[in-house]
Write a structure and sequence with these properties.
By secondary structure, the protein is α+β, with helices and mostly antiparallel strands. About 10% of the residues lie in helices and about 25% in strands. The chain has 3 helices and 13 strands. It has a 5-stranded antiparallel β-sheet with strand order 1-5-12-9-10, with no helix packed on it. A 4-stranded antiparallel β-sheet has the order 4-13-6-11, with no helix packed on it. Strands 2-3 form a two-stranded antiparallel ribbon.
C-alpha cells in the first residue's frame, strides 16, 4: 500500500524539521582557549577571527585596500578573517551542536577546516597548480573537551584551499562572484590537483568551498564538540579561518526524503 501522510501531521513534521535545522550554526561558534605561541603573524591574534563562516572576499578593508576574491590561489588575509597560531600555540574551538559521525556524508567526511593556504601558481597569473603552500599544524578532536584524539594525517593549513565563488574563472579575480560555493560540501580527498588549470580545479571542487576534511569515525569517535588546532613545532605560524560541519545527504527512505516526495508538484493557489 502506498504511504499516505495526513496533511496536519505532515505540516507539523516539516515545521519541526525546520526549527531543528536553523537555530544551530554549522560553523564553530566559540573558542575556549587560545595561546598565540612564540611567533604569530602580527595583528592576526583575535581568536574570534576563527569563528563563523569562511571568507569569500578579502583585502576590502582599511589595512590593505586590495580587494580580491578568495580563490584556490588567493587565500583570505584580512586581520579579522584569519587567526595566526605561532610555534607552541593552539586554539580550542567549539560547535553549538555536536558533530556526529555520519557515513552518509560525502566521502564520509564530517568536519571541514579552512585555513588561508593556497596553491602555488606555476605560470603566474595563469593559475596552474604547481604545489601548495603548506604550513602544517596538528588537529585533535574531543567530545567533552577533556579527552583528546589526534587526527593523524590531517593538515589544517595546507591541504585544500578555500574557494569563495564557483563562477569566477580568474584565479586572481578582483570582484565578487555571483555563485557562492558550498562551505559544507567537501572536496574529494583523493583528487591530485597537480598541473591543473583553474577551470579544472573548479570542476574538481564541484561546487565545494574547499577545506581540509576529517572523518571523525576514522579515529573511533561518534561525536565531536571541540577541535584543538596546535602548532607544536616548526618556525612558521599557521592560520585558521573557520570550521564547518558537513551537511549530510539524507539516507534512502529517511523522513526527510518521504516528506520531500509528498510535496512533489503541489497545486498552485490562485492569487
Amino acid at each position: 500500500m502506498p504511504l499516505r501522510l495526513n496533511i496536519v501531521s505532515t505540516v507539523v513534521a516539516i515545521s519541526s524539521l525546520a526549527c531543528s535545522a536553523h537555530p544551530s550554526s554549522p560553523y564553530a561558534t566559540k573558542w575556549l582557549t587560545y595561546n598565540a605561541g612564540s611567533n604569530p603573524a602580527l595583528n592576526y591574534t583575535d581568536p574570534a577571527s576563527a569563528l563563523g563562516r569562511p571568507s569569500r572576499f578579502t583585502g576590502d578593508n582599511a589595512e590593505f585596500l586590495y580587494p580580491s576574491a578568495v580563490t584556490a590561489f588567493n587565500g583570505a588575509f584580512n586581520y579579522d578573517q584569519v587567526l595566526s597560531i605561532g610555534t607552541g600555540g593552539h586554539i580550542v574551538l567549539g560547535f553549538d551542536t555536536p558533530v556526529r559521525n555520519n557515513p552518509n556524508n560525502p566521502f564520509g567526511i564530517d568536519i571541514l577546516i579552512f585555513g588561508n593556504t593556497s596553491f602555488i601558481d606555476a605560470d603566474y597569473p595563469s593559475g596552474i597548480v604547481g604545489g601548495i603552500f603548506s604550513e602544517g599544524g596538528v588537529v585533535e578532536l574531543s567530545a567533552d573537551g577533556v579527552h583528546w584524539v589526534t587526527a593523524t594525517g590531517v593538515v589544517p593549513d595546507g591541504s585544500i584551499p578555500t574557494i569563495g565563488y564557483s563562477d569566477l574563472t580568474d584565479p586572481f579575480a578582483l570582484t565578487r562572484g555571483s555563485v557562492p560555493t558550498n562551505f559544507r560540501l567537501p572536496v574529494d580527498p583523493t583528487i591530485d590537483f597537480s598541473g591543473m588549470n583553474y577551470t579544472q580545479v573548479l570542476d574538481a571542487y564541484n561546487g565545494s568551498g574547499g577545506g581540509t576534511g576529517i572523518d571523525i569515525g576514522a579515529y573511533g569517535l561518534s561525536v565531536v564538540n571541540y577541535v584543538r588546532i596546535s602548532n607544536p613545532f616548526g618556525n612558521s605560524a599557521i592560520e585558521i579561518d573557520a570550521l564547518s560541519r558537513v551537511a549530510a545527504i539524507p539516507a534512502p527512505g529517511s523522513l526527510t526524503l518521504v516528506l520531500a516526495a509528498s510535496f512533489v508538484a503541489p497545486r498552485r493557489r490562485r492569487s
